[in-house]
Structures are given as C-alpha cells and as structure tokens.
Write a structure and sequence with these properties.
Layout: E1 4-7, E2 10-13, E3 22-29, E4 34-41, E5 46-49, E6 58-62, E7 67-69, E8 74-76, E9 80-85, E10 88-89, E11 96-98, E12 104-106, E13 115-123, E14 126-137, E15 141-144, E16 149-152, E17 157-159, E18 162-164, E19 172-177, E20 180-181, E21 191-193, E22 202-204, E23 213-220, E24 225-235, E25 242-249, E26 254-259, E27 268-276, E28 284-290, E29 298-302, E30 310-319, E31 333-334, E32 348-349, E33 356-360, E34 375-382, E35 389-393, E36 400-404, E37 413-422, E38 425-429, E39 433-436, E40 450-453, E41 459-462, E42 477-483, E43 493-498, E44 503-506, E45 514-523, E46 526-530, E47 534-537, E48 551-555, E49 558-562, E50 575-583, E51 591-595, E52 599-603, E53 610-618, E54 621-625, E55 629-631, H1 634-639, E56 651-655, E57 658-662
Parallel strand pairs: 6-14, 16-24, 52-57
Antiparallel strand pairs: 1-2, 3-4, 5-8, 7-12, 9-10, 9-13, 11-12, 13-14, 15-18, 17-22, 19-20, 19-23, 21-22, 23-24, 25-26, 26-29, 27-28, 27-30, 30-31, 32-33, 33-36, 34-35, 34-37, 37-38, 37-39, 40-41, 41-44, 42-43, 42-45, 45-46, 45-47, 48-49, 49-52, 50-51, 50-53, 53-54, 53-55, 56-57
GO molecular function: cell-cell adhesion mediator activity
Organism: Mus caroli (Ryukyu mouse)
Pfam family, one: I-set
Length: about 675
C-alpha cells in the first residue's frame, strides 16, 4: 500500500517522517476557474527532553509520609518512563508505585528511602533522563504539651509546649488565647515566651482572673502544622457583693439584704458584714453569714448597735482563696432613739471657792447618748445625811457642775453620783464618789524667810513651813516671788514648789544686782498672804579674761604647767583660784584639779594624749577657759628620744610654788 493517498479530495500520509514536512497546495477547478488553498505540514519528532521540565532537584518528606515525584519530559512521540534509584532500576512494590503519568509515588517513607532518583524517558528518537534527591526528615512531635491547670490569682505559671524535630528544620511556636493570637510584645506585663529553639513554653506572670480560658500552642514547620490545647482555670477571692440595702432598722438592730458577686471559680463560703459610724476610725466586723444559697439574695440581722447613731454597712465575701473586695456601702441611716444606758465615769471634783461644791465627770460621747435631748442628772448629799439633792444639766457637752451654798463649810465631804437622760427617759447612774467642797486660801504667811547669793546668777530662798488646819487653810505648796526693787509692779519672777519643800534655788539672775524675795502659801482656792520681803545682792561677774601665757615642760615623768595670774576688772569678782580640767579625748570623762597657785604638776599621760584647759574660780562663778592644750602621751615622747620613767604610784604634794598632782594612768 502506498504511503501517500488521495481520497475524495483528502490527502492521506501514513508513516510520517521529517521529509514530509512542507507546504501543501490543493487546486480545485471547473470550466469557469481554478482556486487554490495552501497548508503547512510540520512533522514533530524529538527524543525525550527534560530541559524545560526537569525533575525537582530536592524533594522533602517526613518519615511516615507519602511523596510523589513528577516526571514529564518533552518527547515526540510520547516517551516510555522508567525510574532508577542510584544506578539500580526501581521496581514497583506495595510502597513504590509507578503512576500512569510517569510520576513516582513512595508511601510510608522511611529513612532508607532517602537518596538520588532518576527518571529515564525513551522513544524512537532517543532517550533522556533527569535526576533529583529525596530528603527524608524526622517528624515533628509535641513531646510536652500544655496540660489543664488550676491556679490562684496572682501566681506565675508556665504552660509547656516542647517538641522533638529534625535538627535541620526550623520550628515556629505561636500561642492563642480563646482563639486570639497572643501578641507577646503587647502582653509583656503578663506573657513571656521562654525556652530555646525546641521549647515554646509560655510563662504567665501574676496571672489574673481574666486569664482563665483555652490556651492553644501551635507548632509550624515547612512540612507540617501541629497544635495542643489546654484549659486554665484561675481562681480568686470573690468579687464584691452587690445591692446592699438596709431593709429595717431599730434602736439596736438592722436588717440587711444583698446579692453575691462573682465567685471567681471558687465557691463563696462566708459573708462578713462590716459597719462604721461618723465616730469610728475604720470599718468593724459586726456579723458573719455562711454561704448556703449560692446565687440567691441574702438577709442578715445585725445586733448590738447603739441607739441614735448613724450607720452604714458593707458586705465582704470569702472563699478558699481569700477575702474579696468589699461591696459599695449602704445608705447612711440612723438607729432609733432609746433611754441612755451608759453612766458617766471618773466622777471627781473639789476645789473652787468657799461655799462651793465643784463636781466633774467624763462627758458621754455622742454615739452613746442614744437620742435627742441628752443631759446629765447630778445627785449629791453631805456625808452622813440621807436626803439626796438633784440637779439637771441640759448641756450635752458639759462635764462640770458647781453647787453654791453659804452654809457649806470648807473641805466638807459629799457623796456624789451622776446619771444621764434624754427625751426617752432617765438612764443609768454612776457609782457614788466622795467629793470635797471648796476651801479658803491659806490665812498665814510663811515665817523665817531668808535669801543667800551663791554666784553672780544664782540665789537660794528659804522659809519655814506653815502648820495648817481647817481654820488657817490647807497648804498644798509655796510660791516664791522675786524682783529687783521694792515695787511689786516690776516683779520679774514667780516659781511654785509643791508639798513641804522650804527652799528654792533661783538661777538666771543678773550679776551684782539687788534682788528682793517673798514667799506665800497656796491651795486650790488661791494664794495666801506674802512673807515680808528679804533681799540679797548677787555676786559680781566672774573674771572675763582666761588664763594666758600657759607654758608646760617635762621633768622625768611629770608635766609642769605655769600661767599668768588673771587680773580682774572693778565690776568682776576677785580670782580665788584656778581649775585645771583634763581629759583623754572629747568624749571621755573630764577630771578637775583645783589650785590657789598659778602652777600645777601632772603625770605625763601614758595611754592617750591629754586635752587640758585652765579657768579661773571666783565668788561669781567660774570664769572663761583658756584655749585647749594637747599633751602627747608617753609612747610618743619616747619615740622622740625623751626618757620617761613610768609612774607607779598616786600622790599629792606641794613643792615650792608648785601644786603637784600625780595620777597613775591605769587608774583614770
């Protein structure tokens, strides 16, 4: 049969080859004309070619997974496909499948399936091949997933999310809370990612009630997406109770109602009722109510309230976790009035003027007055009588009552008791106390008053005590008056002494000044007559100039001091002698050596340096001190080459014009 045929105007070519390519023209003609139609025939013929569609160079799959590797070469005619692993032909099996489109599928991949795979394509024009590598990765597994947790508000917890994965795979952890992604940057106050590459643990610091819910940890790689979820329950103290109302109030009780607030995942076990008044410092617990009807409205009666006092109430709930926030306070309401039931205390009195009985007590605070129209009932009678006298004091703030009667003798004892009343009636009375009526001022002046000057600024006043009785007036003490001339209007001082003291030292006076002094007795009624004035002239001022030109020298173990005699001015007291003050440092005890001369002798200090100053002594007192002198200790002098004999005794002697004083250093 011929390869090229024409049938009914159709050109048929069989067994095409490249030489059949070209332009073909069809001519159709009749008696009228001839027409032409052209067509091009291209015969495609090529060996398999992978240049445009090579096999994927690297295919990645996890252990246990499935993978397909496509093989789609360009080939005309269509090529037949075969596969090689390495250099060996790949045969089909239960796990290895050669698909109709030429792809290779491997199921349930193992580590041993990794390697180089080659697709071989063949047709009559030749063959072609393309190779790629199969990389098998270990599967990613969440080894430590987050688990359900039950925590207390304020705690810090860690939700684990740890994986095992192929070390060549990058792992990304993302956390979700109740379906929303957790932005660790915005939630830094509470949320923090901790751990390394394979650890996606989530730390929640200072966890709050609002953190209760579902936490989802997602693990992402280039090959897979895993997740694990856990429920977190955060339990805390109950929320504040709501709608606290006072349903009924009497003089001593109050009926309350309220609704519980949220239990915050831990059942409410108890309610505490607290109250305060305008007089209280803070809230006080007045009742507790066990939680029984969860979710219902509660009622409780508070007892032991004070009548006629404004109260406000609040309720606090508690559970196993702790005590919650208090409710808003109720409306401020006042209890009903009642008869006062608290009697005044500390019943006392006395004093006042002659023919007076002064009675005092502690005022009852407003919160215990129990109603309006509050006042005090004063009851009293002379000791030994049977009839009580009764008076009312209507002033609420009063705490004193004075009864006047000319027949009352001084210091007469009375039995006294004080009660209370208000518009509701009379209340309690105090126990009986003994109170004395007022007394007369002392009637006698002290005798034997004298005064003596001790220095330029000090004098002492003395007197004889007064023997008293009911007729002459009780003496509680004495009052010393002193002034600088005979006119009492220029009095500059008044000092009181209590009891039987009969002398008083007065200081802060002016030097070389005449002072007058007088003494009088006093008691609760006032002061008595003054004694005749006595006077004294204070001493002249002490010398104002300090000792000068102080010199010291060493003689064996002795320190010799010399200074100039101080000359005084006309208005200064004469120098009677000198004081040498010495100490080891400014914090140690000061020792004093007195002398009538202008020289003295001390032992050289053995353990520490001496600090020495010298001052004058006079009738007017001590004068000014010299500048402080530091005398080195023995060890310092020895290091300077001075030979010192260590003293061993304590002695006091006079040598020539020197007043010598020696003291063993260890005895200081």
């Amino acid at each position: 049969m011929e390869r090229i045929q024409i049938e009914n105007g159709t050109l048929i070519i069989t067994m095409l080859n490249i030489s059949d390519s070209g332009i073909y023209q069809c001519a159709a003609e009749n008696k009228y004309q001839t027409i032409y139609a052209n067509a091009e025939l291209r015969v495609l013929a090529s060996a398999p070619d992978f240049s445009k569609n090579p096999i994927k160079k690297i295919s990645v799959v996890q252990v246990g997974g499935d993978i397909s590797i496509e093989c789609k070469p360009n080939a005309f005619p269509k090529a037949s496909i075969s596969w090689k692993r390495g250099t060996e032909n790949l045969k089909q099996s239960k796990r290895v499948l050669l698909l109709e489109d030429g792809s290779l599928k491997i199921c349930n991949v193992t580590r041993s399936d990794a390697g180089s795979y080659t697709c071989v394509a063949t047709n009559q024009f030749g063959n072609g091949k393309s190779s790629g590598s199969l990389v098998v990765k270990e599967r990613t597994i969440i080894t430590v997933p987050p688990s359900k947790m039950d925590v207390t508000v304020g705690e810090s917890i860690v939700l684990p999310c740890q994986v095992s994965h192929d070390p060549t795979m990058e792992v990304l952890f993302v956390w979700y809370f109740n379906g929303d992604i957790i932005d660790l940057k915005k939630g830094v106050a509470h949320f923090e990612r901790i751990g390394g590459e394979s650890v996606g643990d989530l730390m929640i610091r200072n966890i709050q009630l609002g953190h209760s819910g579902k936490y989802l940890c997602t693990v992402q790689t280039t090959l897979e997406h895993l997740s694990a979820v856990a429920d977190i329950i955060v339990r805390g103290p109950p929320g504040p109770p709501e709608d606290v109302k006072v349903e009924h109030i009497s003089s001593t009780t109050s009926q309350l109602s309220w609704r519980p607030g949220p239990d915050n995942n831990s059942p409410i076990q108890i309610f505490t009722i607290q109250t305060r008044t305008p007089f209280s410092v803070g809230w006080q617990v007045v009742a507790t109510v066990p939680e029984i009807l969860n979710g219902q409205t509660y009622n409780a009666t508070v007892v032991g309230l004070s009548p006629w006092v404004e109260y406000e109430f609040r309720v606090v709930a508690g559970n196993n976790i702790g005590i919650g926030e208090p409710s808003k306070p109720s409306e401020l309401l006042r209890t009903k009035a009642s008869v006062p039931n608290v009697a005044p205390g500390n019943i006392n009195g006395g004093g006042g003027s002659r023919s007076e009985l002064v009675i005092t007590w502690e005022a009852i605070p407003e919160e215990l007055q129990n109603g309006e129209g509050f006042g005090y009932i004063i009851m009293f009678r002379p000791v030994g009588t049977t009839t009580w006298m009764k008076e009312r004091v209507a002033l609420v703030e009063s705490s004193k009552f004075i009864y006047r009667n000319e027949s009352i003798m001084p210091l007469s004892p009375f039995e006294v008791k004080v009660g209370v009343y208000n518009n509701e009636g009379e209340g309690s009375l105090s126990t009986v106390s003994i109170v004395y009526s007022g007394e007369d001022e002392p009637q006698l002046a002290p005798r034997g008053t004298s005064v003596q000057s001790f220095s330029a600024s000090e004098m002492e006043v003395s007197w004889n005590a007064i023997a008293w009785n009911r007729n002459t007036g009780r003496v509680l003490g004495y009052e010393v008056l002193y002034w600088t001339d005979n006119s009492k209007e220029s009095m500059i001082g008044k000092i009181r002494v209590s009891g039987n003291v009969t002398t008083k030292n007065i200081t802060g006076l002016r030097a070389n000044t005449i002072y007058f002094a007088s003494v009088r007795a006093y008691n609760t009624a006032g002061t008595g007559p003054s004694s005749p004035p006595v006077n004294v002239t204070t001493k002249k001022s002490p010398p104002s100039q300090p000792p000068a030109n102080i010199a010291w020298k060493l003689s064996n173990s002795k320190l010799c001091l010399n200074w100039e005699h101080v000359k005084t001015m006309e208005n200064e007291s004469e120098v009677l002698g000198y004081k040498i003050l010495y100490r080891q440092n400014r914090q140690s005890k000061t020792h004093i050596l007195e002398t009538n001369n202008t020289s003295a002798e001390l032992l050289v200090p053995f353990e520490e340096d001496y600090l020495i100053e010298i001052r004058t002594v006079s009738d007017g007192g001590d004068g000014s001190s010299s500048e402080e002198i530091r005398i080195p200790k023995m060890s310092s002098l020895s290091s300077m080459g001075v030979q010192i004999l260590k003293p061993s005794t304590q002695f006091l002697s006079m040598v020539g014009f020197f007043y010598c004083f020696a003291i063993h250093p260890l005895s200081r």
